[in-house]
Design goal:
Domain WCX (chain B): 242-314
Shape of chain A: elongated
Oligomer: heterodimer
Protein name (chain B): Helix-turn-helix transcriptional regulator
CATH architecture of the largest domain in chain B: 2-Layer Sandwich
Domain WYL (chain B): 145-212
Largest sheet of chain A: 5 strands, antiparallel
Shape of chain B: elongated
Domain PafC HTH (chain B): 6-122
InterPro entries (chain B): CBASS_pafABC_assoc_protein (IPR051534), PafC-like (IPR028349), PafC_HTH (IPR043839), WCX_dom (IPR057727), WYL_dom (IPR026881)
Low-confidence stretches of chain A: 129-135
Number of helices of chain A: 12
Number of domains of chain A: 4
CATH topology of the largest domain in chain B: Alpha-Beta Plaits
Strand order of the largest sheet of chain A: 8-7-6-5-9
Largest sheet of chain B: 5 strands, antiparallel
Structural class of chain A: alpha+beta
Number of strands of chain B: 12
CATH architecture of the largest domain in chain A: Roll
Distance between the termini of chain B: 67 Å
Chain lengths: 320, 321
């Protein structure tokens, strides 16, 4: 943005805030320096662009259509422009300081620091150094939104817009296009998920952001998405309610090895000829098999047979 | 906030800031706004050119910075900052709700959290409260080790940990001078000076199998500087060996789980992953775990070790299957 343009926009904001009665475009043209030099058409285009830019940074411009006037009038209402009076107690300021440093990536980090700056400009004490006061300065919170799809999905959730993207299901060889009514985004164990209504499957679904490939496109108009009342986003991305039943595996463990496994075992029975026996509780056979295979020749799964087979399959796979 | 596209929002915050901090120093204001003193003065010169329609001297904003002390006048129209945008308020509200969901960690005094949430919702434009309830950050439930670790932190006592390292399937005893808690990627870590490594380390609390608070004051050496976690908790050393793996669609989790140097799509969901290996054993364990869903491409010696280990392990099963 050129200096001249910034000047013009600042004057425009002041002009629209100062006026009691809505001003027509023509009146604005005469009142705000920078518009006067140009022809009618050039002015119209410039004024349109300027209004859009002000709205983009959150400035509410009222358009007043008086039935007795031909042209609409413009103004900015003070009470919808101004940050309301706000005061924070020291403990509130400390909490806010901590919250403001949570976000790590540009989009939200800038939004958070922008908010803090406005509050400080409004005379609110939000000294960031007090942020360390929570937990005696001994706590740091970080949330990363590294997935490229995050900013687009945040915007879609905010604007209630349907989205379309290419998605690779877990372990799937294919990428499929999905059309989703976004209800929210949730971070769980450091991974981001989109929760919403999958229009292709006609059912609520959760999508991992890291499995979205390419761009997220919006479909249709803002405001089109209805979030059902009482929907529990966290539950939508949680583990299935009915996890597999717990089972116990019996494994032989080489003596002097697999310290971690021994710590996590429910029981370890000393054995002979260099081997002990351990019992491990598990639910997911493949997860157990992955762990056991990773320990190589230091462990042998004795039973159950399906877990034993799963380990053999992995080891053969690694050999191939 | 120094790009020119951000200049107008900055000016609309700068003027109210100067109004509410009369006599503020150039250097101090520049720092608050993330500007050089030269940039700030350029902003002040621009503001000085603006004002009410008419633009006679009496209409213009009056600003001076004699002797580095900024005085502003005649700027009543924009004396208050712009109200918080939806993104701005939501970014703070989501973070505050996350804090509220982890009382064991944040230990926020009294009811400061709900109070500040209510104030922010009031100060924000419409919609922010709603949007912020559609974005949630879950943090793992408080790990068992937390109360004792916290005790060590507040009383500044050395901790004795039994720490599980899954990559090597080891449990190692560690003496650690605790320095702070770090919550990142949805997990809670203890950061402290580790006497075994003689360096700063992050310990994932759910991998702390046991912890004792020792009767020894924590006394980390002067060089114990906090680890910069702004770019992720795990940052492999640039001197670690580069390893290339090819994984199938079922092995793509590797790319989501570990920081990778390079990724290349190979079609049909296959992926070539280049990452830095902390040690050779770690790579071998990963390859064995992957089975037929991934293989080491290079270095060849590493691929050979994987085959050897797989053969040795299979021999155990061959003798009685």
């Amino acid at each position: 943005m050129s200096r001249r343009k910034t000047e013009r926009l600042l004057n425009l904001v002041i002009c629209l805030l100062a006026t009691r009665r809505p001003l027509s475009a023509e009146q604005i043209r005469h009142a705000v320096p920078g518009y006067d030099r140009d022809g009618d058409e050039a002015f119209q285009r410039m004024f349109e662009r300027d209004k859009n830019e002000l709205r983009e940074i959150g400035i509410p411009i009222d358009v007043v259509r008086d039935p007795w006037e031909e042209e609409p009038g413009y103004r900015i209402q003070r009470q919808s422009y101004e940050l309301p009076e706000i005061t924070l107690e020291p403990d509130e300021a400390a909490v806010l300081g901590l919250a403001a440093q949570v976000w790590q990536r540009a989009s939200l980090a800038e939004a958070a620091s922008g908010a803090l700056l406005k509050l400080r400009a409004g005379g609110v004490a939000t000294d960031e150094s007090i942020g360390g006061g929570v937990g005696g300065g001994a706590l740091e919170l970080r949330v990363d939104t590294r997935d490229p799809a995050f900013p687009a999905l945040w915007n879609a959730v905010r604007d209630r817009r349907v989205v379309r993207f290419d998605y690779r299901g877990a372990g799937s060889e294919n990428v499929r296009e999905r059309t989703v009514e976004p209800w929210g985004v949730v971070s769980r164990r450091g991974r981001w998920y989109l929760a919403g209504f999958d229009r292709d499957r006609r059912a609520p679904r959760a999508f991992r952001l890291s499995r979205i490939t390419g761009q997220v496109a919006t479909v249709g108009r803002p405001g089109a998405v209805e979030v059902p009342e009482g929907v529990d986003l966290r539950a939508m991305v949680g583990f299935p309610e009915d996890p597999a039943p717990e089972r116990t595996a019996l494994v032989r463990v080489r003596q002097g090895a697999c310290e971690g496994l021994r710590q996590l075992a429910t029981a370890v029975h000393p054995g002979s000829e260099g081997w002990d026996e351990a019992e491990l509780v598990f639910t997911d056979t493949e997860r157990l098999a992955g762990w056991m295979a990773s320990l190589g020749a230091d462990v042998e799964v004795v039973e159950p047979p399906d877990a034993r087979e799963a380990v053999i399959r992995r080891l053969k796979g690694a050999l191939a | 906030m120094s790009g020119s596209a951000d200049r107008l929002p900055r000016l609309l915050a700068l003027v109210p800031y100067l109004m509410s901090h009369p006599g503020a120093q150039v250097g101090e204001v520049a720092e608050v706004f993330g500007l050089s003193e030269k940039q700030l003065i350029d902003d002040l010169q621009l503001v000085w050119m603006c004002g009410l329609p008419g633009h006679t001297p009496g209409d213009l904003i009056d600003v001076s910075w004699d002797g580095g002390e900024i005085v502003i006048d005649n700027a009543d129209t924009i004396a208050r900052p712009l109200r918080l945008g939806i993104d701005e308020a939501s970014a703070l509200l989501v973070a505050l709700r996350m804090l509220a969901a982890m009382p064991e960690l944040a230990e926020v005094p009294g009811d400061a959290l709900p109070r500040v949430v209510a104030k922010l919702e009031r100060a924000a434009g419409e919609g922010a409260a709603e949007v912020s309830s559609q974005v949630a950050v879950d943090v793992d439930a408080a790990p068992d080790a937390l109360p004792r670790v916290r005790d060590g932190l507040t009383r500044r006592r050395r901790l004795s940990l039994r720490y599980y390292v899954p990559g090597r399937d080891e449990v190692t005893p560690r003496e650690v001078d605790p320095m702070r808690l770090v919550v990142a990627d949805g997990r809670t870590y203890l950061e402290g000076w580790c006497y075994r490594a003689e360096a700063m380390r992050l310990f994932r609390l759910d991998r702390v199998l046991g912890v004792d608070v020792l009767d020894v004051p924590a006394d980390p050496p002067a060089e114990a500087e906090p680890i910069d976690v702004t770019r992720g908790v795990f940052r492999p050393s640039p001197t670690d060996e580069l390893v290339e793996l090819e994984v199938s669609a079922a092995g793509r989790w590797v790319a989501e789980y570990y920081p990778c140097e390079r990724l290349a799509e190979l079609g049909e969901g296959r992926l070539r992953v280049t990452l830095r290996a902390r040690d050779e054993d770690w790579v071998v364990k990963l390859a064995l775990r992957l089975g037929d869903t991934g293989r080491v491409v290079s270095p060849p010696a590493m691929a050979e070790r994987v085959r050897e280990q797989a053969e040795r392990a299979l021999a155990l099963y061959a003798h009685r299957s």
